[in-house]
Amino acid sequence: MRNNLKRIMTITVMLSMAICVCAQKNMIRGYIITLEGDTINGTIDFQSREKSAHFCVFKANGDDTFQSYMPTQILGYRLADKKVVFVSRKFPVNNQDQWIFAEVLVQGGISLYRYETTWTDVTYYFVNEKGELAVLKDPGVHLKYETGLDANVLYGGVAKSPGELEYYDADDAFDIKLKALKPAMAIFAESDQAKEELWNKPITANNLVRITRKYNKKYFPESEADAFEYDAAKSSAVDLHLYAEGGAYFGSVDLGMPTHPSISGLHLGIGGEWLFPRVNNHFSMQALLMLNIGKADNGTHLTTVNQVLVETPFNKMTFYDLNAQIGVNYRIVPQYRLTPIICGGLLLRAPICSIDGSSHFLPQNDSSSILPMDFGCYIGGGIETRIGKQRLSATAKYELPISNNYYAAKGIIATLGITL
Question: Whose CA is closest to 168, among 180, 160, 176?
């Protein structure tokens, strides 16, 4: 048990170090707009939405160092594709006017801006053609800033996500929601449908963008001719993709000392990959469900005969290893189309061994585990290339057990993977 604990701590430290290594500049091509209206092209350190709202870290083409700009020093900045834009505006933040870089979601007869500190604390600003301003928060967050109370107090000691007003009676919930939405509904005064959707739809960027664009298209059609196209995927702090891989497995399985027959076979895996473009484009996380199927011929295993362990030959063995994996990937040079990658993580393993047609889940000796699984880890590396929006990878990973209460295997997996 002590050795297993040391192994788990070692793996945890390795993963923590990988995360720390990733804390580098997230360099993306873009440009700033000076107070005089000039455009300077270069590289932006594209950070979290909260950081992006308070300063722009920028290096002009030809310069050697990055410089930090405050909202009062430039008019704004954009990524090179022009689908993520921040402009310098003076807006109320927590009831106090501040200069911030507000993220542009819609430009038109009614423009929409966003200021975000965390995913649960987002403020939206509507500005109409007359310059009138409406501030919108999710009703739960709005109430927090009106009262100064935290979520536990607001929801009767039960921490709930913002906007869930179910712990109030109907009249109080109506009044809270009306107070939060009334300024925004006044901005859309010409459209009962827009006001109805504001009232009934969740307060999300996608919903507000859709409502505002629809309103502008009807009442300010001239503003739609050169409308700014907000790209939620490029702005998002977390980018989730489907990931699948397949390949070959080569290793050995522990059937109890001294039997460790070699196995080879098929490897399959499917799950999700999370990239973090607003934090660092070197780093991603994967959560996969995987299956290794290994086979061996003419070996031995331990069986119990008259309460004595006896080494018994077998003709055919099939080893099934169902894994749940969580791990990290680190891309060495993510700005290039072809980059080396390093990967590592932890496994939950549920092994089944079929020997000459008879299935065995537990080993022949007594197991001290109360869970039908083992713990393992993996480490590896390979090459990744981008083709359009897809990523193709070729990796080799070494899997080994941390705990070994069941039929445990260790070996090398050679895989081809695709991120969609």
Answer: 176
Helix (H) or strand (E) holding 78: strand 74-79
Task: Report d(CA 350, CA 406) in Å as an integer.
Answer: 8
CB atoms under 10 Å from CB of 198, counted, come to: 21
| Number of alpha helices (DSSP H) and beta strands (DSSP E) in the chain | 9, 19
> Which residues, at least 6 apart from 156, have a Cβ–Cβ distance to it below 8 Å?
167
Token match 């040079």: residue? 333
Q: Going by C-beta distance under 8 Å and a sequence separation of 6 or more, which residues neighbour residue 238?
A: 274, 275, 276
Tell which residue, 297, 402, 324, has the closest CA to residue 6. 402
The pTM (predicted TM-score) of the whole model is 0.67
**Residues 211, 106 contacting (CB under 8 angstroms):** no
Cβ proximity of 57 and 48 under 8 Å: no
SS3 category, 233: helix
What is the dihedral angle through the alpha carbons of 109, 110, 111, 116, rounded to the nearest 10 degrees?
Answer: 180
> What residue has token string 């430039």?
74
**What does the pLDDT profile of the chain (420 residues) look like in tens digits?**
445 545 544 544 454 444 444 444 678 899 999 999 999 999 998 888 888 999 999 999 999 899 999 999 999 999 887 678 999 999 999 889 999 999 999 988 999 999 998 877 889 999 999 999 999 987 654 444 444 444 444 444 333 333 456 656 677 778 878 888 899 999 999 999 999 999 888 888 889 999 999 999 999 888 765 566 676 666 776 788 999 999 999 988 776 656 678 888 999 999 999 988 777 778 899 999 999 898 888 766 666 666 666 677 777 888 888 889 999 999 998 878 899 999 999 998 887 777 776 765 544 444 455 556 778 899 999 999 999 889 999 999 999 888 766 667 788 999 999 998
